[in-house]
Amino acid sequence: MQTIKVRRLYMGALVAALVSTGCDESIFDVKNPGRILDEDLNTAQGVSSLVTGMSADFSVGYDNMSFTTAILSDEVVGSGSYFATGRYRRGLFDSEDANGFWGAVQRARWVAEGGLLRMQGIEGYQYDGNAETARAHLFGGLANRWFGETFCQVVFSQPYTDETPGPAGEIDTGEAMDRNSAFQRAVALLERAAQHGSSAGRSDVVNAATGGLAQVHMGMGDFATAVTHASKVPTDFVFSAEYSSNSGREESQIWQETHGRHEISAWGTLAGIVGAGDPRTPWTDCSASGSGCASGNGADGETIHYRQEKYPTRDDDIPLVKGTEMRLIEAEAALLNGDLATAMAKINEARAHHGLDPLESDGTIGSITGGDGGGANMTSMSGWDILDRERHLTLWLEGRRLWDLHRWNHPHLDGGGVVYKATVARRASCMPIALDECQVNEKVSSLCISV
Amino acid sequence: MSPGSFRRAAGRTALPLLAAAVLIGTVQAPLAAQTGTVTGTVRSATNGQPIPGAQVAIPELNIGVLANNVGRYLLPNVGAGTHTVQVQYIGYTTLTAEVTVTAGDAAIQDFELRSEAISLEGVIVTGTAGAARRREIGNSVSQINEEAFQSAPISNVADILQGRALGVTVLTNGGQVGAGSTIKLRGNNSVSFSNSPLVYVDGVRIRERGVIHSDEANQQTNPFDDINPADIERIETIKGAAATTLYGTEAAGGVIQIFTKRGVAGAPAWSLTVDQGLNTLGHIGPAPDVNPTGLGMNNCNFTGDDNFPGGDPQFPADPSCPASGSWLKNGTLQAYNLSVRGGAERMNYFVSAKWGAESGVFDTGVDDNGVARPEQGQETWNIRGNFSFAPAEDLDIRFNSFYAHRNVTWVPDGNNAEGLLLNVFRGGADYTNDEDGKLLDMDITNINDHFTSGVNILWNPTEGMNHRLNTGIDWVRNEYFEERPWGYFYVQGGNRETDERTFRKLTLDYAGTMDRNIFGLSSTTSLGGQLYNDFVTGTNGFGDDFAGPGAKILQSGAITEAFEVNSTVTSGGFFLQEVIGIGDRLFLTGGVRVDGHSAFGQDFGLETYPKGSFSYVISDEGFFPASFGTLKLRGAFGDSGKAPGLFDAARTWASVAGDNGKPGVTPDNLGNPLLGPERTREWELGFEGSTFDGRIGFEYQYFKQNTFDALIPVTQLPSGGFVGNQLENVGEVSNAGHEAFVNLAMLTSTRLSWDVGLRLSTSESRVIDLGDLENINIGWRNYVRAPVECTSELSNGVSFDGNGFIGQGCTVGEMVYFPLPAFCEDRVQNPDEVGAAPRYEDQCLGSTTPKYTYGISTTMTLSQRLTFDVVGEGMGGHWLSSGTAYQNARRRVWPLCRETVAAIADGRTDQLTAGERALCDRSVTRYGMWTQPADFFKIRSASLSYRVPEDILPGNIRAATLRLQGRNLFTRTDFEGVDPEAFEDGSAEVLFRQEYYNLPPIRSFLLSVQVDF
Questions:
Q1: Does residue B821 have a cis bond before it (omega within 30 degrees)?
Q2: Structural domain tally of chain B?
Q3: Which of A338, B60, B159, B304 has its CA 20 to 30 A from that of B370?
């Protein structure tokens, strides 16, 4: 009897084992719709998706950076309720703040650079002279420009590959380098973008790459080379990061933060002082009756919401390279050479493009003095103060102002503030290496800052 | 009765007894001239209610029956003479009585059983086939029987657990009707995954957490609450990995088993309950003398009083204020519950249906067209059918099914620019130009359907052998609609979102148990296997910018967007367990569980979890003083785990759009082929028993959990290109605590009975290791932080409010560990310095999860008819950040800051301390300054019930009970925010807590009438 009992029990055990482990291995298979495996990207037909992804990853990070550095540089006033806004508008920015921005620019850079390596090895893909190859180089170059202009130091590590698969493998981490390293990387990519773009007959790519070369050479202080490239770009040329209402990921964050919400305002800033009539810095006074705004104030409940109208829809693109900036680069080079007349001519050429009257200097080159006019000296007509205001207004909300403040060592950085005064003697003028990088890259672990 | 026969009776409902019970209503005469019958009624000694299903037996004759559906029993064919009749039922003391049977006569013997919180003879369902006697189990298992919550104002399952179950923390998440609670057993032991327990209903695993989270209401419904509380017979909570090993991967957060009522033989016994009541909310925020309008919510048309002549400038009159002058009103509550139970030979049933409607406390007013807006609230209906069928004497088949439907309407709330409370609480400094009624034009609706059906097959082929096969389906469908109409103030073109998710979980669970006696030892061998299959599908669509007014669908929008969810995960495993019993007083248990899971990495394989325990009923030893009562010593260890997410092991790319709608790809997940589950190992030592003739029941245990190979979202090297986190098995988390429970039967006479229950449980989770990471920001200034070495700066830091912070006073050089999670933010370091600007340091204040929970419950019954029942509960040891206070202080509309703000406006800043400025100076205040200890005590419920004397009832009415009930009646707290239980995103599966313009829990009063016929 005991034997029968045990047999019955073991029969139950057998059933249990079959039930719980399944009769074949597929029982634990995962359904995985919507995801793409890494190796499935190695097809010629998939290259356009790879490159579109580069553009998408660039855009999805660039608007957030432009929004944040606009507050940090007092290009606009942080009038919102985000916790971080309270820090940025006082000039505070540390390594923890930098995490998302560091990740976004690294991804934008890497998908382009890594994508180019992948594209070179794809069977059946005509790499040389292909428009997609040109565009991939362009996005890689512009991402490195963005990296160099925004961050105080840069880091490049060996990318994850099949041989270094990440958590289970080793990876050669990079050292902290001067931001010029990003600019130099950008130069190499942009030069090849121009070459491939030329072969492919894509003048837009060629102009964008050439303008990008002017920007990064200026960033490295090589104005002679910068001017050489700038001069090739027509004043009316614009190449932009693309945004669209096609999907939430493609929407412009700056539109969302100003029209969808009330997180930044032109009130009290240079753009607000100059007036809504300047075509470069349009805005709506939401406190005025009939403004159509949901509220007259910012999300902080009391800063008047001057709603930017440069990007009035969620589809509006953010310029990355444009001919008017090229003229201002030429003007800056002229000021550095002591040639005020050429500088004013270039400035007025850019203004004329926007239908603005020419400016007349007081005859002095001077220096950037800053002031209460939204961080600028509103009354000075010296060459440098005019250039300061003109770059500020021409490149408004394009993610460039913080870089100008930094490279000029602008007086506004010394505790300035347009509405909310800085609580530090020296405002942050660039983003530090992110805490995320310091935590996993021992070569830079001591370089993160906390404020 | 041997252990084996007891198990058999408990596990398969003693089929012969059941068959005998069926005869109660039909057998009217003794079957033989030498025998008589014993008959009577089994009732609760506390409230006189019948106890259907109570086991009545004469062990010496090996006969027994179950009391029928009105508590009556009949033992037929009892030989003439004097016999000992024994009555027992789960959760009650066992009673015996000497009964003399005369041939041909019926001896009448009624029993009144006293509820007993700790009974070593009680049985528990542990994951094996059948049930185990409590004396055999080495773990702590909490059991709540129907009587414990019968008279309480229970609206959902969480209400039953709240304040009544040891080691269970039920976190209320706000006052919107329909908002789900968060339930934790023994706190947190996982960084990356839900710390919620698994939930089984009649052996079928169900969805244990919310499906669709409303970003506008910042709450979500919980399928757990779809179960009709009136259907529940008992709940068992199995806490910790040592107890849940047999449940395998995913059970590290514990297990809750819900058992619903089953049919009992007899004619149909009906029960109708009608509840009528109201919901209300008192004054909101700081005291009325500084906050006369209740942050603008209680009074939105305030014209002034002695303290504020002309009105409160912080909260000016709102032109859109409802005619009542308040955004609040009393909501109504009604529910109707009808059930019937009965049965015939070999088959019985329990069927119930409920309909309820409840409105919240918002006065939603009328829209611009004068049409009443939908009220915040919910409408629910549930039906259940439980059927048992015994086709053979050794086979019992049970079909259990329920269907629930819920329609919840939300009001925008929480961290939401269009939230009602956010805009009302901010006075004029808001998004609406202080016309907050515009926000209520937004419609937010959840429609939930929930169907669970299962079959339990219990087969007892021989004495001491049980086989159990559970199979079932849990199907949850949630629909979510959110619509801003055309012309809506915030989005002129309007928009609409729809989200539909269907979740299906299949359970297939076999277990077999065999009892034997080997060399004088009892042996119980159990083995089994489970397979669970989760399937989720759904679509989420958006339509923006309508062309004009009217009812909308997604494609009414000029811009549309859609997303799809579709995934399947399978997990399964098998277990083997052996229990050796020595002298029916010492029990040694060993077992092992082996699991596979879809989400394990391809190189990982299977996971093995061991367990072991002992239980020693020392009071059965001869040397133990018999007068003491019962005492059991126990100890257990065991492992359990949690599986990584569905795609965490694979390297993947995601599809995105770019260049204005063209297809693109972006890096998604780096992947980790070695990814496996995190493993929680737990030790538990404790004792339980009763003394003073069972009048004092007690239980205590200490537990310690360590989660090894904890899955930590490790940031991958950003400069390597693959941005984002990858789960890695690199962390370690510890969690330890004490649990104690004392139940005092102060008075036990039938004229007056008085029970008092006291509970205390602590849980302290801390991070031991994060691999190479120092810190993980999990949002809202909550961190998972690796230990640091104590420095003099840390040790000597300034405590702003005397509550200290983590590391303060530590010994330099020792390691300082942080709780899981830790709230860390800037705190002022020179609070008493007059005229100085605040100096801040980042300090970690504590966990946002309560470190201790205590409860007191008391039930007093007069003459078994009038019962007064109160449940109070407190939590503490945690910190809560008041986003409301902080954000309002930034806007100069926080009532507690009036004096400081006035001083700043008058230019008297030099007279303020740095501490005052750190709190109320908008330019320098910080979140950390408005983060405070969130200790509280609340009266969760109180009820007064009266059982109407049966002799005045009409003949067809068996019983009638009237109840006056109240929920959430009293709060005591020093927390200066809105409420220590108003949580942002509280019902979402998040580790941290924060109050941010959320509606506090509301108060309810109910009048309930129950009629049994």
A1: yes
A2: 1
A3: B304
Residue-wise pLDDT tens digits, B776-828: 888 888 899 999 999 999 999 999 888 899 999 999 999 999 999 999 999 99
Whether B783 contacts B777, CB under 8 Å: yes
Average pLDDT over residues B163-186: 87
Domain-embedded: residue A309: no
Residue B19: what pLDDT?
A: 39
Q: Which residues span the domain enclosing A182?
A: 46-244+319-440
Burial of residue A81, with CB atoms counted within 10 A of its CB: 0-12 exposed, 13-18 middle, 19 or more buried: buried
Interface contact A160-B716, CB threshold 8 A:
yes
Closest CB to A52 among B433, B658, B670: B658
Q: Residues B97-146: pLDDT tens digits? A: 999 999 888 999 999 888 766 667 766 766 666 677 888 889 888 888 88
Q: Which domain holds residue B16?
A: 3-114
CB B380 within 8 A of CB B356: yes
In the three-class reduction of DSSP (H, G, I as helix; E, B as strand; rest coil), residue B101 is classed as: strand
Q: Cβ contacts (< 8 Å) between B715 and chain A: which residues?
A: 436, 439-440
Q: Which residues contact B128 (CB under 8 A, 6 or more apart)?
A: B246, B511, B513, B526, B528, B577
Give how far Cα B257 sits from Cα of B143, B247, B634, Å.
9, 12, 22
Beta strand spans in B583-677 (E): 586-597, 607-616, 629-642, 652-658, 662-669
- Cα B349 from Cα B692, distance rounded (Å): 39
Number of domains composing chain A: 1
Q: Which residue of A has its CA nearest to B647?
A: A32
- Region B188-210: what's the mean pLDDT? 88
Q: Write the residue in B426, B508, B598 that is nearest to A29 by C-beta.
A: B598
Q: Compute φ and ψ for B398, nearest 5 degrees.
A: -125, 135
pTM of the entire predicted model: 0.87
* Residues of B (320-359) whose Cβ lies below 8 Å from A: none
Distance in angstroms between the alpha carbons of the first and the last residue of chain B: 36
Task: Give the DSSP H or E segment for A51.
Answer: helix A47-72
Q: What percent of chain B has pLDDT over 70?
A: 94
Asked whether residue A84 is domain-assigned, the answer is yes
Give domain status of residue B570, yes or no. Answer: no
Residue A250 lies in a domain: no
What's the CATH number where B102 sits?
2.60.40.1120
CB contact under 8 A, B719 and A174: yes
Task: Give B906's contacts (C-beta < 8 A, 6+ positions apart).
Answer: none
Contact B568 A30 (CB under 8 A): yes
Q: Residue A70 corresponds to which tokens in the numbers above?
A: 């606009």
- All residue ranges of chain A with pLDDT < 50 are 1-16, 18-26, 164-169
Greater confidence (B831 vs B717) lies with: B831
A39, A295, A435, A447: best mutation site toward chain B, by most B Cβ within 10 Å?
A: A295
User: Looking at chain B, which residue has its C-alpha nearest residue A243?
Assistant: B660
B522 within domain boundaries: no
* B35-B38-B43 Cα angle (round to 5): 170
User: Does A277 touch chain B if contact means CB atoms closer than 8 Å?
Assistant: no
Q: Is the pLDDT of residue B7 over 50?
A: no
Which residues in chain A are closer than 8 Å to B719, comparing Cβ atoms? 106, 155-157, 173-174, 437, 441
Nearest Cα residue to B393 out of B12, B771, B796: B12
Residue B35 covered by a domain: yes
A64 inside 8 A of chain B by CB? no
B870-895 average pLDDT score: 94
B716 and chain A in contact, CB less than 8 A: yes
Name the residue among B572, B658, B670 with its Cβ closest to that of A250: B658
Higher pLDDT, A254 or B955: A254
Q: Which residue has the higher pLDDT, B599 or B756?
A: B756
Cα A112 to Cα A133: distance, rounded to the nearest angstrom: 10
Residue B422: inside a domain: no
